[in-house]
Amino acid sequence: MLRAAFIFALVTGLVGLSAFRAEKPKFGERPFSVNTTESHFFHSNDRSVPVGMFSEAVVEADTSVQLHVLMMNYTAYDSAYANKVHRIIQQRLPSSVVSDFWDGSAEELQQALTGNEVVVIAYPSGGNADILKAYSKILTQYVKNGGGIILTGTHEFSILQQLGLFDLDFGYFCAEPMIHSVVLDHPVLAGFSGEKALKNYAYPLDISDPGFVTIADVRGYPVMGYKCLAAGKVAYLGLEYYYDEIESSHFLANTIRWIAQPKRAVGFVASASGDNNWVSKSPKRSEELLRAGTGLTDPVFDVKIYPNPYVIKATIDLDLAKASAIAIDVTDETGRIVGILLPLKNLNAGLYRLEMPNLSPGVYFVQFKSGEKTVVKKVVKTVGN
Predict the structure, then answer these.
(1) Could you give the C-alpha distances from 52 to 60, 82, 244, 250, in angstroms and in order?
(2) Residue 228 sits in a domain of what CATH number?
(3) Does residue 190 form part of some domain?
(4) Given a cut of 70, is residue 37 above it in pLDDT?
(5) pTM score > 0.70 for this model?
(6) Helix-then-strand count for the chain, H and E
(7) How many domains does the chain divide into?
(8) How far apart are CA 247 and CA 274, in angstroms?
(9) pLDDT tens by residue, 130-149
(10) SS3 of 299, please?
(11) Residues 233, 138 share a domain
């Protein structure tokens, strides 16, 4: 009797485990990531990897790209996954600098973001809700200021909802997915034939965000796409990167190159391109001075721009009365950001001197932001004789 009960329990358990198999997009969350000990034990049948399938001998190295990429690993499923993605980026974009942020306060994340054109968040899973909320505000502002963020696939779609970079209703997972291109000529899909079956898992989403643009899907669900947010972009690659599958790694490298162009680091100018649909439709602006909080009686900084108007070069003097977090960007008359002079950065008290970026003749507005205070200065570039 005891033996019969044991056999019945074993069979029931095996049947229950088989429910985690994913022949097509499934509802619900997988209990663990693919390349963990638990996964190899429970999913050995549907995750067997042919010898040599993910050979790392074939590397599409692009030495022409020199970017600063930050791996934000706070929510990574485990360190092995984050380190794997780090290595893939370094192999394919060897001239780029890849750094890591594992843990810290919102202020420390803000500091880590400075100078980086792209942030990669690999397999977000877990994390403290309050910390994620604080990070979300910092990341959102980073994108608005011209940065780019790439999120890879995850079975915990709720983490994507907490980060709040785009709206989604639900997430799925799919084994051996067939990736189908929606926008074939998009730079992210460069070199892609239009349809391909992958061995690694894919994580399509139910996207409810009207600003999200789908690039590729799995069975009609968005698996690759992006959203423009002010001057920057947030991209989603719903793919898995434990194994170095050529196509998935190719998409990642393409996305990093695409989302970082034009360069948005300090001193570079962001020019509009065909897919920059963040361009403001607001009417032309006039010079304005906006202050809030203690700004009226206790000025944090003083600004001078000279000469103004200018022909070739204009100098910006920023005099800080006390240590402050400052962000400086340049917009045209429509409100479109055309240059990031300084991503949000903590500066000590003192005088700082910058130069206007190389712009076409026209009317521009330099925005100085510190906490609740914003100062906007009008600058005019004219045509020389």
Answers:
(1) 17, 22, 11, 18
(2) 3.40.50.880
(3) yes
(4) no
(5) no
(6) 7, 19
(7) 2
(8) 26
(9) 999 999 999 999 998 888 99
(10) coil
(11) yes
